[in-house]
Amino acid sequence: MRVAILHFHLRAGGVTRVIEMACEALLREGCEPLVIVGEAPPTDCRIRPDLIAVVPDLAYGVAPGRAERMHEEVDGAMLRQWGSQADILHLHNHSLGKNFALPLVVSRWAREGRRLLLQIHDFAENGRPANYRRMLEALGGQPGLDACLYPMAPRIRYATLNSADRKRLVLAGLKSACELLPNPVSLPPGGEPVEKSALGADRLIVYPTRAIRRKNIGEALLWAALASPDEKVVLTAAPQSGPDLAVYEEWTTFAGSLDLPVLFDGQGFFGRSTKDFLLGADVCLTTSVAEGFGMAFLEPWLAGCPLAGRDLPAVTGDFRHAGLALESLYQRLDVPLDWVGREAVRELAKAKIRATCEAYEVSFRDEFMRVAWEALVQKDMVDFGRLDEILQRKIIAGLAAGNLPSSEISASITGGASAQVTSNRRVVEEQYDLLRYGKSLQNLYDRLCSEDSAPPDYLEAAEVLNSGLGFEDFFALRS
Known about the structure:
seven-stranded parallel β-sheet, 18 strands, 15% strand
């Protein structure tokens, strides 16, 4: 079976790792994968060069007017590789608003009767209002999105990484055409633990992340401000995009001004891998407020490292169902509301909700404020992770100066016991095995190949937006 896997790039990150593992799994299954991306891969890419084709029109920011050329170039890449078209086109995040020609090409492939697996890791309709706004502007408003973004036909399947995202699409109307396809999880072979002495610490708290905004860097720095003299917090990688870099640089400057025990971009600083840091960590930390799949909840156990930090039930619910014990995580990190002020929090929520509604072209409703406030504040305590960077910095500075009592913070990051590490490692190895993933992919592809061609219908894009736009899980960092 010939499978073309399409994505914007192969830069380091979650989707790239999934594509790398998918290629490995498909080769084991006897398939012939070809990865088609919008830019040349980095030198450390783990996919064989002969299995990669570069089509520049697949890159970020490509305008709708280049859809015809993209269609021709992708088809040409497959013809050069195989002398024919792919049996399956497997696309990642086609509807995210990163490339404005791609939805038009996907719609054309649907009309041509191509077999499509549309795998969605993230939604433009969920916490990415700027992406959605750009799509509205580029593709002709809501009618334009309705006409191309979510095609439905017997030869089209959607796949999500977690049950919550699948439920979102089902509620919007996709029903049986949507599959749950959790990622495989593995760590590369080899690796040597980073030595604590190299960091001047006796205990390492490692946050294995590319420090983009939704990773909630302020919460990691709060734990650094509360660290004991022998502890150090490490964030493993820096962001790569402009907007995220600007926020990141503000955090590095702020942490330096308070002399917090934190190392940014540990991988770049030492030239070591994420696995090396996990092997050397005493506890692995996650403070993210939004994940597509949530590798950070699974990989630490494979390295024998306990996990602590913020729980994301919409993601971890599937992991718990698979047998993972995650009692060391907290769902809220509450601090007294008067540390930042009731009115400041109210104005923050109102401004973020209004901006989100404007971007999504949705009318502001008082109900949005009510449910957002319930997410932010409970019993005169506010969840630190739901605040923006300005209010987070105010709290961290107060804690670092000793002006705020850390005893009033509701959570801790102690990590799990060794027995839990052993048990969880076994669950991850058994439930998220690469062989199991390959068979799941093959099964999906086989079912697509058994379907007859039929003209596509289209899901109303607004239904996908409405199925999740309620602010019941308000986070300022996602708005």
